[in-house]
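anyone seen this seq b4? input:
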Amino acid sequence: MSFGQVQRDAAFTNVNGNQHGVFDKVVAEIAALGTITSDGKAVQVNNIYTVATLPTPAVGNQGLRASVTDGSLVIAASFGLAVVAGGALFTPVFSDGTDWLIG
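predicted toks r here
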């Protein structure tokens, strides 16, 4: 059995650099993190912060995604704008290396 181009028994290195000889073990690790649903589909899991506790944006964290619980701008009208605290909106954000932006 294969998963895409990766054979079930192929060696696999996860993001922590750990080698696994059995692909099933990797799938079990991912499922334990809550990133694979019972039907095998991947789901992204974001860390949740308030705006004040977001990590400092830097070139090294461009593309990181998170969510904030105290956003004050509606996402549909504010995509790509810097996130602002002071509200009660659950808002997805991403780092461009300089700011945390709504999106």
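Residues 2-32 form one domain. Residues 1-10 have pLDDT under 50 and may be disordered. kinda curious what u guys think
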